[in-house]
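Below is a filled-in request sheet from our internal design queue. Each sheet records the structural input a requester submitted and the sequence that came back. We keep these sheets so that new team members can see what a complete request looks like end to end.

REQUESTER: design group, bay 2
PRIORITY: normal
MODE: inverse folding
CHAIN LENGTH: 88
BACKBONE (tokenized):
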């Protein structure tokens, strides 16, 4: 079973503003979520919603998984010092 990937506009803007090398690595990581939405190293965030995060170097990808719909929604992505501030 493969999950569909939905990238919210806010996350897409954040990803497009990143340097080319980081953008490529983040895109690869997001693509890998289709096959396994909870890869090794994933952490569940302590937030009101059921959000997860994966590390890509100094960058983080924040996303939600809806198993009943086979959907992964990328909520935010960016440098680790900024990405958590935008969640609150």
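RETURNED SEQUENCE:
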């Amino acid at each position: 079973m493969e999950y569909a990937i939905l990238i919210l506009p806010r996350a897409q803007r954040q990803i497009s503003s990143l340097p080319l090398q980081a953008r490529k690595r983040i895109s690869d990581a997001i693509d890998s979520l289709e096959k396994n939405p909870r890869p090794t190293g994933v952490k569940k965030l302590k937030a009101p919603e059921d959000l997860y995060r994966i590390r890509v170097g100094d960058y983080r990808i924040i996303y939600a998984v809806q198993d009943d719909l086979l959907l992964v929604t990328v909520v935010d992505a960016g440098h680790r010092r900024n990405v958590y501030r935008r969640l609150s």
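SHEET NOTES:
- DSSP finds three helices and five strands in the chain.
- The chain has a mean pLDDT of 93.
FILED BY: M.R.
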